[in-house]
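Let us work through a complete example step by step.
Step 1: write down the sequence.
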Amino acid sequence: MSTRNTQHRQDRLASGPRAWVRTITTDEATGPLKRLYESAIERAGKVFNVIRVQGLQPRTMAASTRLYQEVMFSDTSELTRAQREMLAVVVSRANDCHY
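Step 2: predict the structure and record it as tokens.
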């Protein structure tokens, strides 16, 4: 990361309060949310925060996960899997997101 980008990130982090979203831990999850968390653990070895933050709305989380899987893993895209991953990295970097 360049010095300019590092400073920008530090400035943003020091700029004040951040939004806080209540999340449901893996141990607290029940029903459909528990099944979604278990599926996430099977896929990725853990429940990432980008998934956990959707825990209050399991139906939305399920739809979001289906969309992600279709975009990234579908065999109907003209882009290769590697190209889709590269685009995801570029967009994440542009958004200063580490996911």
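Step 3: interpret the result. Helices lie at 3-13, 31-44, 49-52, 58-73, 81-94.
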